[in-house]
């Protein structure tokens, strides 16, 4: 490798899921002599983002602090664009790195395009092929994909999606998913929780179900049906206890508390930090969620996942059998959960299925791909 100056990389993210998945990559960038690494957070989600920054000991260089009460997509997009334009007057990177499918992701990619700055898209190529599901994430990732100069696709399926859309093959690198890298930092044997409720649960003799639900398309009737189904599941199965990590959004929170507050063996907790969540996932019996990231994390920990969605951009998980789509119909949720709770063969089949998302080396492959792109390395890196 020959290099005369360091490559200026700015990682831009704004939400907790982005931060979790970017953290292991940022750690490697900081240690690599070929990079000058800067961190810019938009704080699209303030409190939950800060928890991850503290966990991974990440210091930010720029903080747009854009979060507003009852913020909407237009406001978030506008504040990211204006904030980054001001930053570029002070510091112009050779490439920005964005992650996944948030409004921060798309707006940051667009801001870089306006300044003719290269864009690297981590977790590229995921598609549900439904414009409004998930909303706005599906279009965020598609539009970012059009702008991106480098596409770091977690799987071969993601690569095929990009090729179908006309992305040049030489600009796609199959890396695995960085979330698997993050789990290696956080999951520990004999972990002791900060929350006493979680410490007191009987993980050996009870069937603990970890639940999250927050997707915009599930607001209203969807969340109501999910809560009604969870109530019946716990009433019909004495060995079941549910830990529902309730999103801070008041629309979600009000619905969940309306249906599940004071229900025996249902614990409604605020979002917990990443280390706590990963270790809860590691100890629980199964996961029920509409989250994208949990569809990747839980299979690595051998936990079946029921997804409160009709489509998923993580189609590999469905194909491999680690994830099952159950939507938000109350009867289907109950039936699918009951199979996993009462049929050991069904449970074992899901919990032992092959995880398609990575080996913990995705960040290394991304680093090698950037070095290759900037002609510091002569060898195209091996893919996952």
UniProtKB/TrEMBL annotation:
Pfam families: Epimerase_2 (PF02350). Keywords: Isomerase. Residues 29-370 form the UDP-N-acetylglucosamine 2-epimerase domain. GO terms for molecular function: UDP-N-acetylglucosamine 2-epimerase activity. Its EC number is 5.1.3.14. SUPFAM superfamilies: UDP-Glycosyltransferase/glycogen phosphorylase. Coiled coil: none annotated. The keyword Mitochondrion does not apply. Belongs to the UDP-N-acetylglucosamine 2-epimerase family. PANTHER family: UDP-N-ACETYLGLUCOSAMINE 2-EPIMERASE. This is UDP-N-acetylglucosamine 2-epimerase (non-hydrolyzing). It comes from Clostridium tepidiprofundi DSM 19306. The gene is mnaA.
